[in-house]
Amino acid sequence: MLHTDTLAEAPRQPQADTGPDDGFLPEEFRHFADDPESITARAARRFGVPATSFINWRWQMRHQVGNAEQALARLALSASEEDGFKLLADAFVSGVTPYYLALMDQDPSKSCPVRLQGLPRREELNVRVGVKDPLDEVPHSPVKEVVQVYPDRVAFCVAQLCPVYCRYCFRKRRDEEDGLHFNRRIVDRGIAYIASNPAIRDVLITGGDPFIASDEAIDNLLSRIRAIPHVEIIRFGTRTPVTLPYRVTARLAKILAKYHPVWLNTHFNCAEEITPEAAQAVANLVDHGIPVGNQSVLLRGVNDTTERHIKLLRELLKIRVRPYYLFHPHLIEGTEHLRVPVDAGLRLMKSLRGNITGLGIPTYIVDTPSGKVPMMPNHVLGTDGEDLLLEDVRGQIWREKSALNP
Questions:
Q1: Could you tell me if residue 131 is inside a domain?
Q2: Same-domain status, 172 and 299
Q3: pLDDT tens digits, 157-192
Q4: What CA–CA distance (Å, rounded) separates 231 from 166?
Q5: Which 3 state secondary structure label does DSSP give 373?
């Protein structure tokens, strides 16, 4: 049986809690507490707590900023943001870790990509199009919280809580249901389903954020999944390296490494999120043999220009994160102000080729209820006899001779 920790049935805005690792302070993050100029130390002073408390991930969760009053105590808000907190309280929960709040530009008149992702805005009320479940995950769930689109893999949504409730989240619908976080009955049914279906080779553990649980709960979950003979790969989807890096400790990485092969995808959307603290979280993972990929969402004002996107990709490679997917934004209610046209996404992808190593170029994806569809610029101009005519990355025409009949 899965041993749920005290966050298991917590409300969406967690209150004070304790757990087996509540007092654990990771040594690898202590130097940030000791450096008075680090983001950690400066943010701790801003919140009026010792830096050693600030690097405790459970302290971060207990002190999520979830309403306008809490936000205004630490950060000036624009009129749109203040209205967003008040008018959207019943639409989608707000919550931002003190760490992630510290990454936001303190001037609300400036366009800050971190604020755009983390703070509610009045514009979310402008809904012309948008649905609650754009990927039809509910119809694709043979048992609750197990989503199966492909025959050989499932997404196992074990978690409900998140360090930050991203405003573009495509699982906002789960916000209406309480009691989903590491729920014993849901986890048991999910594992039983996976064990009963020998076609399933790949299990993606997601949520919510599956790292918002004790080390012991994660260890127990992994041991149960790894005990299923036909499961070959275990993956995690988590944004904690971005929004709560102190959670991604070397101790947690050692637990994950016991169950190799384990892969992890995270979710950096802009270079401003790649801090020394985030780099340490990633290092804890990759130094224990856990490959880290990145799945960004293309968002207006966040990463929709060539300059901003290349900066993000270069910074990812520097911390050993492989750009994997760039998602076209899902058709979620309240996200129209963040959406980018597909043709703009294709132009962006075209601008990357030749200006950054191919290792740093993600696949541009439109996610549909029947699976992911790659979208790439078309460099094929046509044919001439047996030759293939291409447009190269500099816009020149290239003739690949005898390509059609070698």
A1: no
A2: yes
A3: 999 899 999 988 887 766 666 677 989 999 999 999
A4: 31
A5: strand
